[in-house]
DNA sequence: CGATGTCTTGACGACCTTCAAGAGTCGTGG
DNA sequence: CCACGACTCTTGAAGGTCGTCAAGACATCG
């Protein structure tokens, strides 16, 4: 529900699209793209040989597009890790998402025909370029696909809702906890380990994404380590108590204050250990 | 940039769609709908008489759709005020938006074919029902319209980005300030006064939307009143210093900390009056 | 090897939530 | 008509969370 929560559509574990990784120029069929998108292509679409999509490689630090640049294509991540950022009116970067395999970039450029955010590669990346004209024409060519295409945008929107909700109502600890779990699930879905993985981004970037400072991110990770929810060392993380990480909350509703279980106040911040709360407080 | 920031597409001040307000059953043409959407219809579309859209009325408190309900239509607000909410896993309502004339509801239902949020009327409302099948078929029938349709979804997404950004990086005061300005601009665009207007929602709902408690909302409004930015009395508000309201910030970037003007620390919280800061602090 | 960027940790304090009490407002029913 | 309850809103007091500022440990790199 947090970051790039990929579909529940019985994802058939997309086979790696195309073999040679470092060709510099590579092409995908419509069927490949659909599978990457988590969309089940129809027979008609599967057979289509007339549309092919170009791949492009980016190295860490490179930009796929920048704010204000004329919009002409969507980008579909085939491999690698990236971030998208907005620049607020004070000139600060604000991280909006950490796209990875299967995610679509550039959607926010459709409306005003120019990208409203910036996409930066955090590692070497391989992305499929989908010219928007081609994208929209697909809906006409394969009407069965149309719903899926709108679905792609809708999915992005739902994710943003969840993000806004989390930012507004969860404590810093809870946000970091969920962030880790979301990453874990994402990695699992790609065939990597969901328990042990590397953060591809800095504390600063995580903080910006989660609406807190890098210091708070660092402190929270240290605290989680101390109480045994995870093990951290730099950017390598091992999750040890996923349940605890994902069930943290805060705010005895402010609405359920009135009615509902009038006993058991502080119990809402449900930690696994009794001691946990104190340890966290003691930071 | 905050709430329902309506397009910059030279909005031609949509004429009120259809005359009789209290008919209970009313119909709009495609051209009407396009104009409400802020989309310029092509001649072909303007002439189209074969598609008509049904209106439905709702009274304050009524729900247009609820979470989990099968998705089949988008709703376009013609008049009235509403809120959309999500229910988080603790069972709390979280306000996601305050839609009004020209806004589209239900977009988040496309992906999984069921609504992911709930829409509630805050006042009497008149909405246009757009069956999703009709919506998507329009793209095929009038290819020139297709881009606009995707644009509608893209616009929603951009708005959410701005919201997430604001939640993550602005102080409570700044968020309330911008919220008021956004409302004002919205009302102006509809032909109402942008200086004097009524809040249609409770402090609780504002707080939920802005990620703070109702008490903080109340206190902030009182403080704005005290220093002369606005005049409040219950739900009626008069804006007196829009500039001040919209330019509040916080967080000497944490990134521009390194370089940039090393002097003038606290100056970033740019208020119009020197005294303002103290007054706010004295609350 | 200094320079730069990342990460950790501590101390302090401001901002905002929490808890509580009271004033208004509105609708319903006696 | 007024009383009553249910909400909404305001304001105060207290405390916790998290941002701010600072210093130091590492790691990477030209």
Automatic annotation (TrEMBL), chains A, B:
Residues 58-156 form the Cyclic nucleotide-binding domain. It comes from the Bacteria. Residues 170-243 form the HTH crp-type domain. SMART domains: cNMP (SM00100), HTH_CRP (SM00419). InterPro entries: cNMP-bd_dom, cNMP-bd_dom_sf, Env_Response_Regulators, HTH_CRP, RmlC-like_jellyroll, Tscrpt_reg_HTH_Crp-type_CS, WH-like_DNA-bd_sf, WH_DNA-bd_sf. Keywords: DNA-binding, Transcription, Transcription regulation. The keyword DNA-binding applies. This is Helix-turn-helix domain-containing protein. It comes from Keguizhuia sedimenti. The lineage of its organism: Bacteria, Pseudomonadati, Pseudomonadota, Betaproteobacteria, Burkholderiales.
């Amino acid at each position: 529900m947090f970051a790039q929560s990929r579909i529940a559509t019985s994802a058939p574990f997309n086979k790696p699209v195309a073999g040679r990784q470092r060709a510099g120029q590579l092409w995908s069929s419509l069927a490949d793209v659909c599978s990457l998108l988590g969309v089940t292509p129809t027979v008609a679409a599967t057979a289509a040989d007339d549309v092919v999509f170009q791949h492009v490689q980016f190295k860490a630090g490179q930009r796929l597009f920048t704010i204000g640049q004329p919009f002409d294509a969507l980008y579909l991540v085939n491999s690698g890790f990236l971030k998208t950022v907005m620049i607020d009116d004070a000139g600060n970067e604000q991280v909006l998402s950490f796209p990875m395999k299967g995610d679509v970039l550039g959607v926010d450029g459709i409306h005003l025909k120019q990208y409203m955010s910036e996409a930066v590669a955090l590692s070497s990346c391989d992305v499929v370029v989908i010219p928007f004209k081609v994208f929209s024409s697909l809906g006409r060519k394969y009407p069965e696909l149309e719903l899926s295409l709108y679905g792609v945008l809708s999915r992005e929107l739902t994710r943003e809702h969840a993000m806004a909700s989390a930012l507004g109502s969860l404590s810093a600890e809870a946000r970091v906890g969920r962030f880790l779990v979301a990453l874990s699930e994402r990695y699992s879905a790609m065939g990597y380990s969901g328990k042990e993985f590397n953060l591809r981004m800095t504390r600063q970037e995580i903080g910006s994404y989660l609406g807190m400072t890098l210091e708070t991110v660092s402190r929270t990770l240290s605290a989680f380590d101390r109480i045994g929810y995870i093990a951290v060392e730099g950017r390598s993380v091992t999750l040890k108590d996923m349940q605890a990480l994902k069930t943290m909350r805060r705010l005895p509703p402010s609405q359920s204050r009135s009615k509902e279980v009038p006993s058991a106040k502080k119990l809402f911040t449900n930690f696994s250990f009794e001691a946990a709360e104190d340890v966290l407080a003691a930071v």
